Amino acid sequence: MRVLITGLSGFAGKHLIEFLASGGTHEFLGIDLACSAGSLEIGDCKLTEEKADLLDRNKIEKIISEFKPEQIYHLAAQSSVSRSWKDPINTFSTNVFGGINILESAKSSVPDARILVICTAEEYGEIEDGRAIKETDKIHPENPYAISKSAMDFTSMVYHRAYGLNIMVSRSFNHIGPGQSEGFVCSDFARQIALIEAGKQEPEVMVGNLDSGRDFLDVRDVARAYWHIMNKGRAGQVYNVCSGKPVKISRLLEILLSLSRVSGIKVKKDMDKFRPIDIQTVFGDNTRLVSGTGWKAEYSLKRSLKDALDYWRENVEGPSVGKSC
Prior knowledge:
- The chain folds into 2 domains: 2-176 and 216-241, 3-Layer(aba) Sandwich (Rossmann fold), CATH 3.40.50; 185-214 and 245-282 and 300-315, UDP-galactose 4-epimerase, domain 1 (Alpha-Beta Complex), CATH 3.90.25.
- The N and C termini lie far apart (50 Å).
- Helix 1 crosses helix 7, helix 6 (185-197) packs parallel to helix 8 (249-259) and helix 6 packs across helix 10 (301-315).
- Strands 3-4-2-1-5-6-7-12 form an 8-stranded mixed β-sheet, sandwiched between helices.
- It has helices at residues 11-21, 57-67, 81-86, 88-109, 144-163, 185-197, 219-232, 249-259, 287-293, 301-315; strands spanning 2-6, 27-32, 38-42, 45-51, 71-74, 114-120, 166-172, 174-176, 204-207, 213-214, 216-218, 238-241, 247-248, 266-269.
- By secondary structure, the protein is an alpha/beta fold.
- The chain has 10 helices and 14 strands.
């Protein structure tokens, strides 16, 4: 099986390739701006990495026409909500026009390939009655990132209907777990606590809005969900990838502080961490994913947070508090 993954070096991409490689013999091609070109073996699988900008249509067409993937996982995106407010033009270009280049190239070279386009629960906006969001609910994107992903979501379905491409879309809720970069709430809290434990930050955690509720799912369960959708999902269908229950941001922090090796850590608000518009509560209904593909989550919230904290304990950098470099 020839499998193409965009966004290979990203948070979900790394876990996806690890999961896919454990399940059989495949030939993988990963596209990413952060990749260094080359090949390596992962178990019985061959992985070739190609550095490429999704906005370089000629290069994307060449890669896909030569590799001829049977499956395409399109994960690459500018996925930070806060960054999207600061740079909406780049966010829209990468997430929409970059994605269209993938679909156009697939249409020309591999029209029978199965394609999973990763979109986001941010598209939904806020559901007023606070219920679990279904795929059939109307979308109301309220930030530049969500708007860009809504555009790609609709574009994907148009390409399915107009050209018969075997496209499925995931609307993924919040991922957590080991390996996530800074700029996302769980990873941000875990990194700060790891810095405090290492004596590299004063014993206080800087936070934004702790009152909002989100649907958090371990990234390893997310990777498994993507495989289930790709192999058992129905073309032209949208799937929520979520846990099915909301968790307050304050609860995440509470669990992480309970796992800390340092007691008495203070919590301090940082207004720079607040968004111009913040939705109060968002959580999804995963019935379609579970019943349609047989997927189910395996990781508990506490396990995910512990693994995220352990990751940062091994990867924090910086001078100790009160000491020179």
